[in-house]
Amino acid sequence: MAAVFLVTLYEYSPLFYISVVSLCFVVTAAVVLGWFGFDVPAILRSSDETESILPTPEKQMVQVTNPFGLAMGYGTASVIDGISVRPFCLEPCILSCFWGCEVIAVQGALKSHQHGPRLSTPQHFQEAFHLRYHHSQSFHVSSDNNEEHYTQIPAEQGITDFGLLPRAHYPLVAVLTLAESEARDVYNIVASVTVIHVPDDKYSLSARILFQYLLTSQGNMFELKPLFMSADSRGVPGPPDTEQSTSPYQPTEEAHRLEQSSVLEEEDWSEGTGRDCVVCQNAAVNRVLLPCRHACVCDRCMSHFQHCPICRAFVLESFALTQEPVVEW
Ligand SMILES: [Zn+2]
Ligand SMILES: [Zn+2]
């Protein structure tokens, strides 16, 4: 129909035909530009750019000091011979070692900290565990020395192993709490809970820390994860590789499902060398995306992404690693 009209028109007057076609083009161009503004039409943009219309809310973060540290001691460890642990504390602390603590009791205690009264003293933990452990032992830990503390189940209890897998008891749960009540008001972190595997005849896996949690006075719980860095001096930026080992202790699922992910989940964040932004490769990484916690983009690129460039998780919030304006090239 339109074609027949155009052919007729062309035969009638080529000049008039060209004028009509040009006019149609100009009108169409005007409509398109009026519709989209003098910007690039939305269909020509990448999906990430179109989403940048919604700015990601800025999350206010505070830095907290962890007064607790606990490492495995040197020497051999076994359920029969006991184990040495080495606390590192900024304040005088109490180290409570709960041997053969029921997995369910530990989970229940951690949950009760989040929903009920906070666990900040050894007595709180004893009550929260409902005495569902074989033996407990306490040590005073001073802040100025890092001596090892040796703990063991008394031989008269006759406990030599914790049975076959899967197990219902953790061999050792080491709890660090602040000894002085004044210190509890100073630190946000009020307790550290370390679940330790100790080898026995039934399960000879070498002694190791299975999980480490920090409990805050606000009722949050953060899991400390092992930090792995690139063996090269300057590695490829990327998410930290945390060791994901399946636990022989049951039930495992719920134990890991934390309501709060960790502020202290370390990133490969080495001495401000300015790992390049994964997007523009031109500025220092300064944005941590939440909830995935990937630190991978600079402030400038942040506004172009609604999804994490590393894991594609939807970005709900973000926070800056440094508040000072990042030096622009
Ligand atoms: Zn960038
Ligand atoms: Zn991510």
UniProtKB/TrEMBL annotation:
One of the record's GO cellular component terms: endoplasmic reticulum
Membrane-crossing segments per the record: 15-38
Residues in RING-type domain copies: 277-312
Region feature (Disordered): 233-267
GO molecular function: zinc ion binding
Taxonomy, superkingdom: Eukaryota
Localisation: Endoplasmic reticulum; Nucleus
Gene3D superfamilies named in the record: Zinc/RING finger domain, C3HC4 (zinc finger)
GO biological process annotation, one example: regulation of cell cycle
Pfam families given in the database record: zf-C3HC4_3
Keywords: Cell cycle, Endoplasmic reticulum, Growth arrest, Membrane, Metal-binding, Nucleus, Transmembrane, Transmembrane helix, Zinc, Zinc-finger
Principal location listed in the UniProt entry: endoplasmic reticulum
Record function comment: Able to inhibit growth in several cell lines.
Protein name: Cell growth regulator with RING finger domain protein 1
Organism: Pleuronectes platessa (European plaice)
